[in-house]
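Section 3.1: Structural characterization of target chains.
Under the original work plan, the team committed to producing a structural model for every single-chain target entering the pipeline before any wet-lab resources were allocated. The record below documents one such target. The sequence was received from the expression subgroup and is listed exactly as submitted; it comprises 217 residues.
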Amino acid sequence: MKTIEPTHRVQPGEPAPDFDLPTVQEEGKVSLADYRGRRPVFLALFVGLYCPFCRRSIAKLGGLRDKLEAAGVETLGVVATELDNARLYFKYRPSRLPLAADPEFSTHRAYGIQRIQVDDAVMAAVGAVRINPTGDLPEPMSPDRASAVLDQAEGYQRTDADLRDMERQWSLLKAQFFVDREGIVRWANVECEADGFAGIGKFPADDEILAAVRMVA
């Protein structure tokens, strides 16, 4: 896969770029510096809430939060949507995962997570792949069809902010990083990096996350 422009993706062993973003569940801001010298953090970068795989992954990571806390690790999700859009969604679907809003996906760029360069070959490859990343589909489907089926199952209706996010973010990848208490990345996972387009929508299994954390925490 090729990205739109050459970029350095932050690797394990390198300093994690700091950020300063508004928090979703309460008034205020959060930065990576808030955790430095105190506790390690499992950081998950999501695209906008139009993505049903992201919505499910946020719920999944919220359910894992207690186990991560027991291992001495904080959790934080960054959602690439407008703050008001995020607050509206999570008002009716509360999450135990602490969240920050980053509508300009500046955190993605800081960590070197870019959009995939789209051409006819890429479109054909994505259209041909069949996925069921959350296990919630009756059978593997194309990514577009899978998204539509999951939205319908949730009764999810996209907002104007969602439509703006889709236009700007289409083909933007998701990623997760485990950052130690000194602010160094110790583990990273980027969507589609291991499985190609068959990895669209995949989120690391709980056991994989906990194993990565236990190696360092």
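The two ends are 33 Å apart (CA to CA).
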